[in-house]
């Protein structure tokens, strides 16, 4: 303005655009939710989940930046002068009717301004957080938190005049807002009377000048109000010198109030020229004394803006001075018509924003940048990384549990043999295959076992054409007891499943169930989950052997048995074999309503039946081993996935692999169905950062500020 280059605005943050990115839960979402419900999660949604208060801070700071960017562009005009020079009347001329009543105007010290009063556009109050920050910023600048100017005129007048505050109250600034300043787009700093003597008890001139210097960063320009008689007054020179010393580089203006009709505008301008030139005053405004009737021709009633003419309103009940810039050319001053840009009310279009605005905006930008990048994004990224770390730990616990229940291992953890769930499908396949492949002499004496038939229909249906005599019943009972004594296979009950999970650190690796405690937070839900795992596994396990390969293995095994060979118990090999199979199906009957999964390797079952030749063949035969390993791994994969589902853990993609002897075997993806009400009662969510989010964010809110 006034021949000075306008200060370059700091880079602005486009808050609506940034907010759209932070709320995007589609293509530009910050987070990808992998489990339990795959989808995208916006930055703010993730932050509300992790740190709700911080999410609120980000939104609040964004609003401050958005509204602050517009409000901070409003310049602030500091108005100062000597005692009763009419400066507050000038301020009042720019305010609404209610605002005028709150100002203190008069001709005695009792009507003088003895406090700093910052008048701001009413819009500042629309954002409470922004308003409070501005108050804090202003208080920091002058060294004391501000006090709000009372709404009631009488109380406001007492504050203005510092009637009860004394010397100390001088340093406590007053702040007020007015809607008329919204339209003008300007703030006003009504300064104390700089030259008031200390004898008034409201602060020395030195103290006032000190405070004026502190408030200077809030000023875009300084307007000194004078009267025609002060053209050569030393006090005016002192004020201008003080302003020049305290605010170098800030435009200085002069407003001459109460000009009498006998003085022409150009004469007044000429009389103030020496002081204006000496102290760098860039423009002189004037206002004629409205109390004198002869001033009427020199008080503008209208002004032109291009082809349009605007009426200048001035209340007859409470008239105020109308200031216009003085021209050295008589025909450019009233009573001649003037343009709108000559009016003091149009000064806002030429003023730059104050230094404090840049500082305020840069501070809000920095705070938003820290909240989004340093705190918010770091929290979201750490949460995603943590979710993956916790999930990997939890998966390992569930995988170790699955391996423990479905394999035999060395003390070092190496898998020596895989165990199968001896489901009805598997047992039926084995029984059918060995019976169909058995020579005629091996089937002698095989008939229905009425003992088993009476105890379980499932066993009866399966073995009504195979199960041996009462001698085999005792044989089957002995094998069954070996299962119970853990000498053969593995009986997996809900209790055994929990023991295995705890053995592999469930209390530490399943925080969504244990929450740092030794026992589950919801014991009933945890116990139900153990039952649901086994129940869903029983319902889903449809794994069977490859029929052709199983038939070939069965035929080859029979060829290994000498003709008419009997066992010590007096049973044929087939009878002993079927007794072993029957013992497995009889196990759930002994445990009543308890869900039970019986796991055993074929080698274990054949050995328990005393069929050492069969057992040795199965253990050493490549085809037999491949057959059982393939089926067992399918079952293990299914159990692992269902265990993950019921415990609320993402099983992962791809599924894990296990090492069997010298080979790594990858779990195949099982085909499982879970009841509609089978969702886990507690889940450990998994999140992953969107790789493009950082780039998108940096394009809108650069991590490093050029003004840092």
Automatic annotation (TrEMBL):
Highest taxon, organism lineage: Bacteria
Entry keyword set: Membrane, Transmembrane, Transmembrane helix
Keyword flag Membrane: yes
TM annotation in the entry: 567-589, 595-619
Name of protein: Uncharacterized protein
Organism expressing this protein natively: Stieleria maiorica
């Amino acid at each position: 303005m006034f021949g000075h280059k306008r200060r370059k605005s700091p880079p602005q943050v486009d808050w609506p655009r940034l907010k759209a990115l932070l709320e995007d839960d589609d293509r530009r979402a910050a987070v990808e939710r992998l489990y339990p419900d795959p989808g995208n999660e916006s930055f703010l949604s993730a932050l509300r989940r992790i740190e709700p208060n911080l999410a609120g801070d980000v939104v609040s700071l964004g609003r401050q930046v958005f509204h602050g960017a517009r409000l901070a562009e409003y310049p602030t005009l500091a108005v100062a002068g000597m005692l009763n020079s009419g400066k507050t009347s000038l301020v009042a001329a720019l305010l609404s009717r209610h605002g005028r009543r709150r100002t203190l105007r008069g001709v005695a010290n009792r009507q003088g301004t003895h406090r700093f009063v910052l008048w701001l556009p009413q819009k500042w109050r629309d954002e409470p957080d922004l308003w409070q920050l501005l108050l804090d910023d202003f208080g920091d600048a002058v060294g004391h938190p501000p006090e709000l100017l009372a709404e009631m005129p009488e109380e406001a007048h007492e504050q203005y005049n510092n009637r009860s505050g004394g010397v100390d109250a001088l340093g406590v600034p007053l702040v007020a807002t007015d809607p008329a300043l919204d339209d003008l787009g300007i703030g006003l700093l009504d300064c104390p009377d700089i030259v008031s003597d200390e004898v008034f008890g409201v602060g020395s001139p030195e103290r006032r000048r000190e405070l004026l210097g502190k408030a200077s960063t809030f000023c875009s320009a300084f307007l000194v109000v004078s009267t025609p008689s002060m053209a050569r007054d030393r006090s005016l020179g002192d004020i201008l010198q003080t302003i020049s010393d305290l605010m170098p580089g800030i435009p200085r203006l002069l407003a001459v109030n109460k000009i009498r009709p006998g003085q022409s505008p150009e004469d007044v301008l000429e009389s103030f020229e020496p002081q204006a030139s000496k102290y760098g005053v860039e423009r002189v405004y004037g206002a004629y004394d409205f109390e004198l009737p002869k001033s009427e021709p020199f008080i503008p009633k209208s002004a032109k803006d291009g082809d349009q003419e605007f009426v200048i309103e001035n209340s007859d009940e409470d008239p105020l001075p109308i200031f216009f810039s003085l021209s050295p050319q008589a025909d450019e001053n009233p009573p001649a018509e003037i343009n709108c840009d000559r009016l003091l009310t149009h000064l806002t279009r030429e003023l730059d924003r104050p230094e404090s605005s840049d500082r305020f905006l840069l501070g809000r930008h920095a705070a938003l940048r820290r909240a989004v990048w340093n705190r918010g994004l770091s929290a979201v990224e750490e949460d995603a990384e943590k979710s993956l770390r916790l999930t990997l730990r939890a998966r390992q616990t569930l995988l170790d549990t699955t391996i423990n229940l479905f394999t035999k291992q060395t003390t070092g953890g190496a898998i020596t043999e895989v165990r199968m769930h001896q489901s009805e499908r598997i047992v039926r396949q084995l029984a059918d295959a060995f019976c169909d492949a058995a020579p005629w002499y091996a089937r002698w004496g095989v008939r229905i076992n009425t003992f088993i038939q009476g105890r379980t229909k499932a066993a009866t249906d399966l073995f009504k054409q195979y199960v041996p005599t009462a001698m085999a019943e005792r044989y089957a009972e002995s094998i069954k007891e070996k299962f119970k004594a853990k000498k053969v296979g593995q009986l997996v009950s809900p209790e055994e499943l929990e023991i295995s999970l705890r053995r592999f650190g469930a209390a530490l690796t399943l925080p969504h169930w244990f929450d740092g405690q030794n026992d589950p937070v919801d014991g009933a839900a945890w116990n139900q989950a153990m039952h649901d795992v086994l129940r869903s596994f029983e319902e889903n396990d449809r794994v069977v052997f490859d029929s052709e390969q199983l038939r070939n293995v069965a035929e080859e095994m029979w060829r290994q048995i000498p003709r008419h060979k009997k066992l010590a118990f007096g049973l044929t090999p087939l009878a002993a074999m079927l007794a072993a199979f029957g013992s497995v199906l009889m196990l759930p009957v002994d445990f009543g309503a308890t869900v039970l999964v019986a796991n055993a390797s074929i080698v274990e079952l054949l050995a328990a039946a005393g069929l050492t030749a069969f057992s040795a063949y199965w253990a050493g035969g490549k085809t037999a081993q491949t057959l059982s390993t393939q089926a067992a791994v399918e079952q293990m994969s299914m159990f692992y996935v269902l265990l993950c589902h019921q415990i609320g853990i993402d099983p992962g993609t791809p599924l894990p692999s296990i090492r069997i002897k010298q080979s790594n075997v990858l779990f195949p993806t099982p085909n499982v169905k879970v009841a509609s009400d089978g969702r886990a009662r507690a889940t450990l969510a998994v999140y992953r950062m969107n790789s493009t989010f950082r780039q998108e964010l940096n394009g809108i809110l650069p991590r490093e500020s050029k003004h840092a």
